[in-house]
Write a structure and sequence with these properties.
The chain is α/β, with parallel strands linked by helices. It has helices at 13-23, 58-67, 71-77, 112-124, 172-179, 252-260, 266-271, 320-336, 342-365, 377-393, 397-407, 419-435, and strands at residues 5-9, 28-32, 81-84, 89-93, 96-97, 106-109, 129-132, 137-143, 146-152, 157-159, 162-165, 187-202, 213-216, 224-231, 235-243, 281-291, 303-305, 311-312. It starts with a strand and ends with a helix. Flavin-adenine dinucleotide (FAD) binds next to helix 1, strand 16 and helix 8.
Length: 437
């Protein structure tokens, strides 16, 4: 009997989880990446974002554990820090900190190279996985009405029954489709010209009275925000971000001065006397981009697009890796029902996964008047309501928990509008207005 071979282009988080889903349905799964994979915990060229702060949402952590049983425990043994997403974190919104009941949403704080390296270790240990490193993919091979393999930049061809494009937000994968004569997917782009500056500091267990993270989102007024997360190796990773402006300075005095200008003093107070332990990293992220593959009427058999190549989000919401893991769950379900009409079924289901994080990221970014993107009365109302919800969440666990369930992609966005939550939001705001008189 002929063996079935799948190729995954790109061995970053998207490619790794897609490959894991494929291993249950294909005899061989080959990961092709133009990088060489380093040891666990080391950075590599193809994932430059790994030097910046990374968060893994509770939904992503759960899905990784489902695909790679035991990985959470091994990450913790390697230094990753478990914590409750709400109880262990200072979420500072609308001039106050969310109240902090135990949410049961388990987060894991760690660096991107530790997480990605460990996922690679688990995946590459599977008997039907092969790896082609230092291989630049250049396009698809098309024969007998379907994609039949991958063309490498070297000119070589690797035959396959199925190819999944996880080469990131660069646009390579979208071009491969049009090179075959297929129509391009409609693209939505929401520009926010984000600047990211990251530094690592030494962490002591007594810092922040034992809290593990501070999240201080940018406001439309100041456009400056920051995140500070504990990570393995007794480190804090601190990212200061700006919308539509210049990056936070990378030199230490400038970095501290910028931290001082954020909407709350918590990050500045925590790092002003801390020992820096890394060189600064600076990057720009121009826009969230979503390719609407689910709307295409024509798509070649034997091929899928996956991960950031479908949708890459403003990174401050920490969604991309978790969305990729959830997409892998969807891919697995689609493959369980066979390969007939696979692209249409997968893109439709993946779009449902993407809708929530996309609406969170884009909706919130549209609070900034400079953000370009479709703005309608619905978005303005939601943003007005979310401001009220955050105020109520300073004191009331009901709206706080409702918000964090959605932000962790564990509940649909409309759950923050459940009458039980709306009632508490109204009550909380009446109380807030009364106290401020
Ligand atoms: C600054 C920043 C911060 C972020 N922070 C977070 C966070 O906190 N939490 C979170 O969940 N997500 C975060 N993300 C998003 C996250 O990195 C991605 O969503 C995640 O890596 C999934 O992307 P991917 O695997 O689809 O693509 P990528 O991660 O972009 O990987 C693409 C891979 O394809 C390979 N490749 C590219 N072209 C070719 C080719 N022609 N041939 C062969 N190989 C190729 C590359 O070497 C690379 O390995 C952040 C992103 C950025 C930019």
């Amino acid at each position: 009997m002929a063996t079935k071979h799948a190729i995954v282009v790109g061995g970053s988080m998207g490619g790794l989880v897609a490959a894991r889903a494929l291993t249950d349905y294909y005899d061989r799964v080959t990961i092709v990446d133009r990088d060489t994979f380093p040891a666990i915990g080391e950075h590599r060229k193809g994932v430059p974002q790994s030097r910046h702060t990374h968060g893994l949402l509770a939904s992503g952590r759960r899905m990784l554990e489902r695909f790679f049983p035991g990985i959470g425990a091994e990450l913790m043994a390697a230094g990753a820090i478990p914590g409750d997403v709400l109880a262990d974190t200072r979420w500072i919104f609308e001039g106050g900190t969310h109240c902090r009941p135990k949410s049961g949403f388990d987060g894991l704080l760690l660096s991107r190279p530790l997480l990605e390296g460990m996922v690679r270790k688990y995946l590459f240990a599977l008997p039907n996985v092969a790896v082609l490193e230092n291989c630049d993919a250049a396009g698809l091979v098309f024969a007998d009405g379907k994609v039949s393999g991958l063309r490498l930049a070297s000119g070589d061809v690797v035959a396959a029954d199925f190819v999944v494009g996880c080469a990131g937000r660069s646009g390579h994968v979208a071009n491969w489709l049009t090179e075959l004569g297929y129509p391009a997917a409609e693209v939505e782009r929401v520009e926010m010209a984000l600047g990211y500056t990251t530094r690592l500091f030494r962490r002591h267990a007594t810092d922040l009275n034992g809290d593990l993270a501070i999240i201080l989102p940018s406001t439309p007024e100041g456009k400056r925000g920051g995140v500070m997360l504990a990570q393995e190796g007794d480190r804090w990773t601190v990212t200061l971000m700006s919308y539509f402006g210049v990056n936070a300075p990378s030199d230490l005095p400038g970095f501290l001065e910028y931290a001082k200008s954020l909407p709350a003093p918590d990050i500045y107070e925590a790092i002003r006397n801390a020992e820096p332990v890394s060189d600064p990293q600076v990057t720009k992220f121009p826009a969230s981009v979503r390719h609407r593959y689910e709307k295409l009427k024509l798509f070649p058999e034997g091929f899928l697009v996956f991960g950031d190549a479908i949708c890459s989000f403003n990174p401050i919401y920490g969604q991309g890796m978790s969305v990729a893991a959830l997409e892998a769950g969807v891919l697995s379900e689609c493959l369980a029902a066979g390969t007939t009409n696979l692209a249409r079924r997968f893109f439709t289901a993946a779009a449902k996964v993407i809708d929530t994080p996309w609406s969170i990221a884009v909706g919130n970014d549209l609070r900034m008047p400079e953000t370009t993107g479709p703005r309608n009365a619905g978005v303005s109302f939601i943003n007005w309501y979310m401001g009220k919800l955050h105020k109520a969440a300073h004191h009331d666990p009901v709206p706080a928990l409702a918000f964090h369930a959605v932000a962790n992609l564990l509940a649909p966005p409309q759950s923050v509008m459940h009458p039980r939550v709306v009632w508490r939001v109204l009550l909380g705001n009446l109380w807030h207005d009364f106290l401020s008189k």
